[in-house]
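Input record (Table S2, row 126):
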Amino acid sequence: MNLGLKMLFGVLILAVSCQTREQLNTSIVIESKTAVDSVTGLVIDKNFELVRGQCTACHSAKLVTQNSASREGWEQMIRWMQRDQGLWDLGENEVLILDYLSLHYGPKKKGRRTPLTTIDWYYLQE
Ligand code: HEC
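Output record (heme C complex):
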């Protein structure tokens, strides 16, 4: 390989590694960017205004932020509110609202259960 070719490869490898570095940085920034509305406590994204408008009319947004469910779970809650609590038809907004809810208030990741703290241990009698 002549020197020119070697330098060319060197530059290429540098370029590729710089790019992956940059991609890594961007994904970290996106994750740490999750902003929360100081009034409602709802996560702010492109559907935030919609959810704030539709889901805080009857009750506190805390009912939303303190809950977590799958998309199906959220849909069932919406159906229940529509059946029993006077929630209106959300129309084509429903898809966007479900996107928002399942993205930010999806099922909690299950780790190990927390250790039990209130056990009365006792010795087995022979
Ligand atoms: C028309 C009124 C109304 C609107 C609008 C409304 N809800 Fe509700 N929602 C209720 C009522 C009433 C309850 C029961 C409150 C209670 O138990 O104190 C409730 C309860 C809830 C609960 C608690 C359910 C549970 O199992 O405890 C969640 C979560 C919830 N709503 C989410 C939402 C979301 C998300 C939206 C937006 C799509 C929304 N609500 C819009 C009336 C409404």
